[in-house]
Design goal:
heterodimer, A: 374 residues, alpha/beta, 16-stranded mixed β-sheet, two-stranded antiparallel ribbon, 10 helices, globular, B: 188 residues, alpha+beta, Potassium Channel Kv1.1, Chain A, 4-stranded mixed β-sheet, 8 helices, Skp1-related protein (chain B), SKP1/BTB/POZ_sf (chain B), Skp1_comp_POZ (chain B), ubl conjugation pathway (chain B)
Chain lengths: 374, 188
């Protein structure tokens, strides 16, 4: 069966019925094949939100996540398309073949069990293997191939569970770091790390000395931050310096005074300009959290009116949901510099803050329209 | 693929026979048309079954043939092998007036037969059957390495593609030179 004898519509129909993983492997057959797949699958590739390189027990797995996928269960996560693996271990080789990956010859192996879907968290997929000394150049070649194949509408993310792990520095490669340094960690090391990797998309951190990070550090530039157990000084420093878009502070040791201070900073327009979503969960000791809504510049929609619901795409890439938690609140504040609105909500010990891409006038019109449609 | 339910085949355009109609007979008498492939075996197929093929449906809706005219003028599909056309006719009959299931497991397992079926179905514009066939073709390479895929689908290597491209360029150059020479000859 000669695929090239089929007309283009048939070739496209065949490709449309293939899993992305299989298309990826087909693309290695020839340059022309790669070009044909790319041109016929633009719609599919544009629906990919991100390609992640995940480190898991001495291996890296390259996974694809589609924009429409709503990951609610572990099964959904496992169903994430894993297209290949990478390893710097040369043993246990079963079935080897060599491929030209962006001009570099790289060895691949397939385990006898392949394909073995969903047998483990990551299914058994063809695995590139290389000597540890060559991993930097191997990663570069593989990333160049993958980013050329899926195109520039996709976000490429390298995930690391420690800043001490190997992280390549490559074009179009953003970073997603989870780091829980211990108390003995020196601030300088952390700052050096942030200075070396300025394109941090997502950062999850728990560190007792967070406030010691310099306000100029790239740490505050991360697009999305998740901080666990920040101390009071850390909260102050954070609200003064954060320049990213989304933040979640869990088990936060602060009270309503800090929440008012935070809202005041945003309202003045002098800080948190890019912020679109913030969620703060306070510790069980927190009292009178609702007092935060009594600041005299917090405005309220009439109780009889239905407030609009705020939700934006969640940048927290391993999230089990595509969007941030919805905020439906009668309370809102208006930024002085551009008249933009943010919905503010307090539910139990959770403070939520969602910035609208609307002025107060537009926001109130939206409230009015939702009344009419009801 | 099972044998036809409504249409049958016969050798040469002689007298095609018809299988008994299904129990639920339509109120209006159904019209039939005739098709044949490379082997000239004529298949009598109902208009309802032929609706699956956008190409034939388009042809018959413009013709307004009587039964006699249809019999005398079978649609010739000389580019389709007889056994492949038989498969297509069987499929159209089996799925006549029914919603198509999400999968069809009765497609040929042999690569070359499937290949010919895909080409025929694409030519006849039978959308659902084309999707089934393409799914089956796609399944052939599931979990295979690039080398294995190349073998199954006979994909040329980069070197072969380059050589073919060079050859095509050379041929085009020669043809252009020939045309120029002919034009010069004409001018004289």
């Amino acid at each position: 069966m000669k695929l090239s004898k089929f007309p283009y519509v048939v070739q496209k129909e065949i490709f449309d019925n293939m899993k992305t993983t299989n298309l990826f492997w087909l693309s290695f057959a020839s340059k022309n094949m790669k070009t044909l797949i790319k041109s016929s699958q633009t719609k599919r590739f544009k629906s990919i939100s991100r390609v992640t390189y995940n480190n898991w027990v001495n291996k890296w797995y390259v996974c694809i996540l589609f924009k429409t996928k709503n990951m609610r269960t572990m099964e959904d996560c496992m169903g994430m398309d894993t297209i290949m693996a990478m390893s710097e271990h040369l043993d246990g080789t079963k079935h080897i073949f060599q491929l030209n990956v962006s001009g570099k010859k790289i060895g691949f192996r397939v385990s006898d069990e392949y394909p073995l879907p969903k047998a483990s968290f990551y299914p058994s997929v063809p695995e590139a293997f290389f000597h540890p000394n060559l991993k930097e150049s191997a990663f570069k070649a593989i990333h160049n191939y993958i980013s050329d194949f899926f195109g520039d509408t996709v976000v490429y993310l390298w995930t690391a569970n420690s800043y001490k792990h190997f992280i390549p520095q490559l074009p179009n490669l953003s970073l997603w770091v989870t780091m829980w340094p211990d108390r003995s960690e020196v601030t300088e090391n952390i700052e050096t790390f942030f200075a070396s990797y300025p394109d941090i998309k997502y950062l999850s951190i728990r560190w007792d000395k967070l406030q010691s990070i310099s306000p100029e550090s790239q740490f505050y530039e991360a697009e999305s931050i998740r901080i666990t157990r920040p101390s009071l000084p850390a909260v102050h420093t954070f609200s003064r310096n954060f320049k990213g878009r989304q933040a979640t502070l869990s088990y936060c040791e602060c009270g309503f005074v800090e929440l008012i201070e935070f809202m005041g900073r945003w309202r003045s327009g002098k800080a948190l300009q890019k912020l679109e979503y913030l969620k703060i969960t306070l510790t069980s000791g927190a009292r009178h959290v609702r007092e935060a809504l009594r600041a005299n510049w917090v405005k309220h929609i009439a109780a009889t009116e239905k407030p609009p619901t705020h939700s934006v795409p969640d940048l927290y890439t391993s999230s089990f949901k595509p969007n941030t938690d919805p905020i439906t609140s009668h309370s809102y504040i208006v930024r002085e510099t551009d008249n933009r609105v943010a919905s503010v909500s307090v539910q139990g010990r959770t403070f939520s803050f969602g910035v609208w891409n609307k002025t107060e006038e537009e926001f109130l019109k939206m409230v009015e329209q939702s009344q009419i449609s009801n | 693929m099972s044998s036809t339910e409504q249409g049958t085949s016969s050798a040469a355009p002689a007298e095609p026979t018809t299988a008994p109609e299904s129990a639920a007979a339509p109120e209006v008498p159904e019209s039939f048309y005739y098709v044949h492939g490379k082997d000239k075996v004529v298949h009598k197929v109902s208009a309802g079954a032929l609706q699956h093929s956008a190409l034939i449906h388009g042809m018959i809706s413009n013709l307004g043939y009587t039964e006699e005219q249809a019999k005398a003028n079978p649609f010739p599909f000389e580019n389709i092998d007889g056994d492949i056309l038989q498969m297509v006719v069987d499929w159209c009959n089996q799925h006549k007036g029914k919603p198509t299931p999400p999968e069809d497991t009765n497609l040929p397992k042999q690569k070359e037969k499937l290949f010919d079926l895909v080409l025929a179905v694409n030519y006849l514009e039978i959308k659902e059957l084309l999707t089934y066939c393409c799914k089956q073709v796609a399944m052939m390479v599931k979990g295979k390495s690039p080398e294995e895929i190349r073998e199954i689908w006979m994909i040329p290597t980069d070197a072969e593609d380059e050589a073919a491209e060079k050859e095509a360029k050379k041929r085009a150059g020669k043809e252009a030179a020939g045309e120029t020479a002919a034009a010069a000859g004409d001018a004289k």
